[in-house]
Design a protein that fits this description.
The relative contact order is 0.11. Strands 3-4-5-2-1-6 form a six-stranded mixed sheet. The chain is globular and about 80 Å long. It is 58% helix and 15% strand. The protein has a domain of 117 residues: Beta Polymerase, domain 2. It is α+β, with helices and mostly antiparallel strands.
Amino acid sequence: MIQNTRQQVAQAVRAVENKKGEDVSILEMDKNAGAFTDYFVVCTGTNPRQIQAIADEIEHSLEQDGSRPTSREGYGQAEWVLLDYVDFVVHIFSEKARKFYDLERLWKSAKRVSLADLAKKPVVEAKKAPAKKAVKTAARSAGKKAVAKKSAGRKKPGPAARGAKGKTSRAAARSGGAGRSGSSGRGGAAARGGAKKRSGTKTTGRKRK
């Protein structure tokens, strides 16, 4: 579609040149500046008759490809004839009207192009796909943060905590062992004392007999 528009603009410019139109300008409009079309073709005719002849030649040339202007204005007065082809607009001025309206200054953000530029393939800016890499990186980063938070909640006890725990365990072990050995010692002594008493009683009994 873009290439077709460029071809039609080039065809309109050649029609202007066929009728000796002067000071031809091709403006590629800046949509950011509020332009309502893609291209302007601006030219000058030296008299009303030539201005009308230029307009007729453009219409005739583009009609052969099935293109007709949606509107034509100013043809009767031939001071400023406007042919609107939607994607481009042709302005044919008298010298006086062109200086007065000065479209090139009014649309100064537009880019001037030549027939050679129109013949080139247009550079279409590719739409930027979502940055998958950036999304993945962000996801990985979020995952790492979540893991870090979990790890922080499950931190291993530090050296001091481990030492205290070890000391407590060892102290408990020692006190338990001492208690058991102490009681067994006392039990043994008591047992041995009881044995002595019993043996003494038996001995005494024998002597009396």
